[in-house]
Specification:
The complex is a heterodimer.
Chain A (H helix, E strand, L loop, with lengths): L19 E12 L2 E12 L3 E5 L6 H8 L7 E6 L2 E2 L5 H7 L1 E4 L11 H9 L4 H10 L16 H13 L5 E5 L7 H18 L2 E5 L3 H7 L2 E6 L2 E7 H6 L1 H8 L4
Parallel strand pairs in A: 3-8, 3-9, 6-7, 7-8
Antiparallel strand pairs in A: 1-2, 1-4, 4-5, 9-10
Chain B lengths: L1 H9 L1 H21 L6 H18 L1 E3 L4 E3 L7 H24 L7 H22 L15 E4 L2 E4 H23 L1 H11 L1 H6 L4 H27 L5 H4 L1 H10 L5 H22 L12 H17 L24 H17 L2 H26 L7 H17 L5 H23 L5 H19 L10 E2 L4 E2 L2 E2 L11 H22 L2 H11 L1 H6 L4 H27 L1 E2 L6 H15 L3 H10 L4 H9 L6 H15 L3 H17 L31
Antiparallel strand pairs in B: 1-2, 3-4, 5-8, 6-7
Helix pairs in contact in B: 1-12, 2-6, 2-9, 2-11, 2-12, 3-4, 3-5, 3-9, 4-9, 5-23, 5-26, 6-7, 6-9, 6-12, 7-9, 11-12, 11-13, 11-18, 12-13, 13-18, 14-15, 14-19, 15-19, 15-22, 15-23, 15-24, 15-25, 16-17, 16-18, 16-22, 17-22, 19-22, 20-22, 23-24, 23-26, 23-27
The chains are: A alpha/beta, B mainly alpha.
Main location (chain B): membrane
Subcellular location (chain B): Cell membrane
GO molecular function, one term (chain B): branched-chain amino acid transmembrane transporter activity
Amino acid sequence: MTDQPATTGPAATVTTERRPALEITGLTAGYNGVPAVRDLSISVAEGEVLALLGPNGAGKTTTLLAAVGLLPAMRGGVVALGTPVRGRRVEKIARAGVSLVPDNRGVFQRLTVAENLRLASGRRARADLAGTLDLFPQLRPLLGRRCGLLSGGEQQMVALAKALLPRPRVLLIDEMSLGLAPIVVQGLLPAVRSLADERRMAVVLVEQHLDIALSIADRAVVLHHGQVALAGPAAQLRERRDLMEAAYFGRL
Amino acid sequence: MAQFLQFVFLGLSAGAVYAVLASSLVAVHMATGVVNFAQGSTALWAVWTVAALRTDGTLVLPVGSVSLGPEPLAAAPSVAIGVATAVAWALLAHLLMFRPLRRAPSLAQVVASVGLMIFLQALVTLRFDITISMAQPILPASDVTLAGAHVDVSDLILAGTAIVIAVALWAYFRFTRPGIATRAAAEDERAARLTGLAPDRLAAVVWALTGALSGLVAVLAAPTVGLDPTTYTFYVVPALAAALLGRLVSVGLACAAGLVLGSFQSVILWGSSKTWWPGWAQAGLGDAVPFVVVIVALFLLGGRIPARGDAAETRLPAVTIPRPRLVPAALLIGAATAATLLTSGIWRFAVVTSAILALLALSQVLLTGYLGQISLATMAFAGTAGFALSKLTVSAHVPFPLSILLAALLATALGVVVGIPALRVRGAQLAVVTLAAGIAVQSFVFSNPALTPFEGNRIRDPSLFGWSLAVRSGTTLTTARFALTVLVIVTILTLAVARLMSGRTGQGFLAVRSNERAAAAAGINVAATKLLGFGLSAFLGGTGGCLIGYSRGQLSDGSFTVLAGLTLLAMAYVGGITSVGGAVVAGLIGPLGVLHTFLTRTLDVGDYYQLIAAGGLLLTVVLNPRGIAGATGGQLRVVLARYRPGRRGRAPSGPPPPVEAADVATTPEPSHAN
């Protein structure tokens, strides 16, 4: 039973001096009236990378969907970039600067890489496109190819490039490692870290590969049955595998 | 040769309409995944709006009309207003129907667009003065000589317009950001919204655009092609054929195919005036061409037509599995018998017609509701059997029960043949095949003077063991003997179907409906199941057609029109496409049935019947996909369950009412804590 969120370390509800970009307060959300996330409160500051961890069915994806307005909250709510999410259209929230890379990658398979990127960049200058392609140089020769013909890793690069192009101020990434070799993810995530620092972008990272996630995150939250089981600075949690395991199995 | 060329060019005006409708169909399908059977009907409204404006300056609205001055309106503003009405209809269709249905199964989308097609068709007939027979010219009337053939400039302008439109649509989807965004949104709506695109707005743009283009070309072509309250509605069939040749993704191919199809039909017309042309093919061959094209397109290109192997990801309308129970069945049969015996004249005829229609609707329920195969050709099956009955009884003197059996078996054979394409195509494309088949049979068989004499097909009255079962006897319009014969046949077949559907066959049908691959994996022979469904459905339809034949005494090409078939599908859907009870309801509310007679005789609003039918269909498909029978049945069960004490527990509140999975649970269940 984990009715009381067990917390360790100094960081149950970290209040940083930086302004929060994404604030989730008392969120209860779920499907068909059954909550998957209960009374959850998480806050992510500008330039901060938060790893959202937990076993299958812990409510990680649910949290992200609620954060971008794809899933209405039953109770509580989400404030993204100073504006409540409730009642706003998903596309409006996306255009305001909240990007989600969904777990199915959200890449348009029937469009070429260039078309995918063009849709994401909006009416922005081509300079941004060039800048983003510098981050993913492997995509340059593939621009004219349909995304359905790319490998999983290449598609994930397109997904990330697509999410980064509109210069989001909040970036949510759902299971980038799904179906990919860890080495591919290891190549992609450091880019996200440096962008978070450069652009003061808030990042929420849902990951199954704990080591990769904790190595680039500032902070981590472990969910279990839709509630916070463990939270703390990533560096500390990296050292405490026993605590992490206990949180994963709901034994805290 | 010059004459041949002349006919090639003559066909370009109709070809241009096909081409633009086909391009629009492709565009709408690319943007929304909908195959819009009503594409021609919106254009039809524009054509008649322009005709009315240019006759007496009246702007006819769906309700009421506005006079824009005492004089006929000039060409340019009339065309602009006409095109605007087509845009308005297209946008309304998007907002009120296809947007709410965007995640609905393709059956609901097909039925909705067919409903819109009938609705607009009926509304045009009601609202406009359809005695206007000539559309006034808009394009220049001069002609030029090309390779010895006199060619109307207007035909060339129309063809040019079609090509320009196709190129523009192609460029829109290929190069512009909204166009690319539209394709993206059609592929994955959620991802599109996460990318900051607004799928609804993008789709609305395409609806409006294609509505305008279809309206424009139809208005421009009307002076050449002719003014008729139905033509444009069914222009959608050759257009669909052309769109399928373009695999529903290529605007350019669809446009080219449309133009060629128009010319080809025109050349056939030229050929049929020649002495060397076979007599049996003198009429209707042109209408059969689109069917051939559709079949070729689907068989040769079938593997490349998108969305072919999709499992049904969306929720299908809930099925009521028939459990033949003695009491309700006996009550229903008793009521029908009483209704037959207590009525006379036109009312008894209405009861008999309702029973026959219930049988036809049952054929639709079996095929579309249970097996999930959208067929628009039920009336073609019925008609084939009816016409066969005429030949069998008049020429071959086959006696009564055998005559129905043989005729229905012929329809069964046709059903299996039409079902063969269903082994490869499904969903909306199958609806296109069956609609094209229906049109081909109607034009090539029913309306073909070589097969159907001008005075109609007489049918000898039935008799059994020397007893006359004729529908008419002296001044009696409908004899009790005939009415009871119909009831007996309908009852036996209905019970047989209910029995079949509650057993293994029915389960096989449902498995194929929900997911063909999963059904195959579970050991069901999908091909055999589908053919069985088509055969059974055609047998029921054929029997219904024979009964219609006997009840009329003679049949003409007007007896089994495609439009009547579409209305019947509408009624079956309104009644409840997934239950036997729905078929009964459909019979009661079907054309010339009890409700129809009530509306005509008692309320005197028979003219509005088709409109009411289509309107009812549109409401049903958006608001209540289970139909009247499904909804009432569901409420009935809830009420019964509430008042029936629990069998085991005898709990004071009784067992909870059985609810559909769709309605389940707003009660939050505590998530399992371990």
